[in-house]
Design a protein that fits this description.
The chain is α/β, with parallel strands linked by helices. The chain is built from nine helices and twelve strands. GO terms for molecular function: glycosyltransferase activity. This is Glycosyltransferase subfamily 4-like N-terminal domain-containing protein.
Length: 270
């Protein structure tokens, strides 16, 4: 089977959606299927894998390095025609979704939409547009796109409920994101000792670990507030190790200072 992925973000960007798309592509290819990725160009990045088409792109906001594709290309028609996909898989409801729907309709093949994200949580990045307006626009775009697809998938039950609350009547399937378990099973005592030494962690410290992008929609502030509550109730040895980078680092550092847990919250970077 030949599958065309249309996504507004792909490597070298590091985020949950890229990880999910990459894992799915690799899994399909291990099963003998072919996948062609259509994604925005990222400045100074050269693809090392085959079957990736890059659209010209622009950065919409300076808050986040997130190049957005310009859904116009004279070359893409030839690439899609030669690849001749059996399915079009759309990974975002904006921008490249319109191209994907057009080619899916033209080729008479199924069109699948995956909604990876609760987009309302990202409304604050689109300044100076009021968040309330952004929420309504997101709802309208997703609803208008939904009826043009054959099936919607989403990784969580909570996201399925949000889609249903939009009034969308399409077939909706919950397909959790896959996890590469081997990465979590590696046991390297030397590396573990080095990390603890680097961040001044004791053997009997109880480590709470967060790994991901440091942004407000990740609700890391709730973990810091929970840690402060624990510290008030006991003389525990809990430490919060935050691994990653993002626009909310300064805000979270200030929160840790305000709650007087700055000694127990470690920002390890990437």
């Amino acid at each position: 089977m030949r599958i065309a992925f249309f996504t507004n973000c792909y490597k070298p960007l590091v985020n949950g959606v890229v990880t999910s798309i990459s894992s799915l592509k690799e899994a399909y290819e291990r099963k003998g299927h072919e996948v062609y990725v259509f994604a925005p160009r990222v400045e100074d990045y050269v693809d090392q894998e085959k079957n990736v088409f890059r659209y010209r792109s622009v950065n919409l906001t300076s808050k986040v390095k997130y190049p957005l594709p310009i859904p116009l290309s004279f070359r893409v028609k030839k690439v899609i025609t030669e690849f001749n996909p059996d399915i079009v898989h759309i990974h975002h409801p904006f921008l490249l979704s319109s191209v994907a729907i057009m080619y899916g309709k033209r080729l008479g093949i199924p069109k699948i939409l995956t909604l990876h994200t609760q987009y309302e949580q990202y409304a604050h990045y689109v300044s100076p547009i009021p968040e309330r307006v952004t929420h309504e626009v997101i709802k309208m775009i997703i609803s208008n796109l939904a009826y043009k697809t054959d099936c919607i998938t989403t990784p969580s039950i909570s996201m399925k409920k949000i889609i249903e609350n939009y009034g969308i009547k399409n077939r909706i399937e919950v397909i959790p994101n896959a996890i590469y378990l081997i990465s979590f099973k590696e046991d390297d005592e030397l590396k573990r000792t080095e990390i603890k030494k680097k961040h001044n962690l004791k053997e009997d410290d109880k480590i709470i670990l967060f790994v991901g992008r440091i942004a407000s929609e990740k609700s890391i502030d709730k973990i810091i507030k929970a840690l402060a509550i624990i510290k008030k109730r006991s003389i525990g040895k809990e430490k919060l190790l935050i691994v990653g980078s993002g626009p909310a680092i300064d805000e979270l550092k200030q929160l840790a200072r305000t709650l007087k847990v700055e000694e127990d919250v470690i920002f390890a970077g990437t």
